[in-house]
Specification:
The structure is a homodimer. With about 170 residues, chain A is α+β, with helices and mostly antiparallel strands. Chain A has 3 helices and 10 strands; from the N terminus they run E-E-E-E-E-E-E-H-E-E-E-H-H.
């Protein structure tokens, strides 16, 4: 499985894949670690959205907090770490909501969804800091408001649109 | 924007992107044409799912029909063509349901969702044929059954899970 390209976020392999019918096809596959997607729910029922710049779209968009699972890290630990990095809150309750592939045709990324709640400020001596290229705005909205943002095309991120149906 | 890799499905560019804060970051971006995702609804209310082998997962999974928009093609024309290729039915009614990015962090693919109905057999002299590497099984299920497949982890495709919330 020769790797033809590697970046900080993903790599590309060109493989010869044997299909169930026995025929072999060459396929280019984007390899991406699993990621976690969180619905952070506050005590008042509002969910926390983030807005960040996305290079492929050349604009900032509203999404739920999310991020890659690091090597050796559990999905729950990644969910906790990403909440601290992206919304500066630590969840005390983490509930799994299922796992889905956003692009199974060419990419192996699995997105693992969680509802996270009982959000607390991080410890003052925490060493977790936002990624240097992430400038993140946050907003707490009701689930109804967030679903209105989806319906009006103000939320264009698929994982966020799906997760809000579970909130 | 140097292209560092090209395949039949996507290409990879490495760009230097200026963020809103004025700082520049190098980013690897997967370029992928827009795609269409269809919820084919029969007269009896059942929706048609397809099962096909996905090389990145090395297994066949249940999904809604979907495919790339070809250069110069409208999204509606792509939806019609992909229905004929994947479920051998032509929709007479095509209703837009919104557009979403499945992986905005590293890929520019936009998925355009449609409800398609009044499904007819294609013309006997149609020249549209399935892609040679696609062996596709189809199944018509009630929306409730399909949502049960999502809840039980039998549907793991994100676009399908989301679209079924709109069906």
């Amino acid at each position: 499985m020769p790797t033809v390209f590697t970046s900080r976020v993903f790599s590309v392999e060109v493989d010869t894949i044997r299909h169930p019918n026995g025929r072999e096809h060459e396929a280019a596959i984007v390899r991406h670690p699993p990621s976690v997607v969180m619905i952070p729910v506050r005590e008042d029922g509002r969910v926390i959205l983030i807005r960040q710049f996305r290079a492929p779209l050349k604009e900032a968009i509203w999404e739920l907090p999310a991020g890659k699972v690091q090597p050796g890290e559990t999905a729950e630990a990644a969910a906790t770490r990403e909440c601290e990095e992206e919304i500066a809150l630590l969840p005390r309750v983490i509930e799994p909501l299922g796992s889905f592939y956003p692009s199974p045709g060419f990419c192996d990324e699995l997105m693992i969804f969680f509802r996270v709640s009982q959000l607390q400020p991080p410890a003052p001596d925490s060493t977790i800091k936002p990624d240097e290229d992430e400038e993140i705005e946050t907003r707490a909205v009701t689930v109804e408001e967030a679903r209105g943002m989806v319906a009006r095309g103000e939320i264009v991120d698929l994982k966020t649109a799906y997760a809000l149906t579970l909130a």
